[in-house]
Amino acid sequence: MHTIGTKSSSSGPPEPDGDDDEADERLRPARSPARDLLPLLAGAATTTAGVGAVLALADIDSPLRAPFTLFFLLAAPAAAVATALRKLEPVGRVLASLSAATAVNLLVAQGMLAVHRWSAPGGIAAVAALSSLILLLVLVRRLRGRTERGRAS
């Protein structure tokens, strides 16, 4: 017959009883499901936007082409601008980045129409290039800020 040992004090953290994996599970704080969901949603959004850009650039006929391409045209510049506005409150950052995404799309369309070079693949490429440029400038600014702070210390 197997006996079960009892502990005299239950106020402190549980004592490991030889099984390290079991002790680690008891001492580790529980992860929130929302914390696990955010990277998953970001990956799904990136995949959806990428598929939309590929479908439009490759001129593939698919019922998903229009919604995925529209998602790319809104998400790419919005994500780049949202990265730049990291210090804003979340609601303000979402509104500002969606407004900026709309402005980027309108400026690309207006510029292409003004020079008589309108094409859907060209517009998608231009939006992708501008979004990449915005993101690159933000990353360069952050890296430059880190090196200057490192020199000042």
TrEMBL record:
The keyword Transmembrane helix is assigned to this record: yes
Keywords: Membrane, Transmembrane, Transmembrane helix
Annotated transmembrane regions: 37-58, 64-82, 94-114, 120-140
Region of interest called Disordered, as start-end residue ranges on this chain: 1-27
Domain of life: Bacteria
Keyword Transmembrane belongs to the record: yes
Descriptive protein name: Integral membrane protein
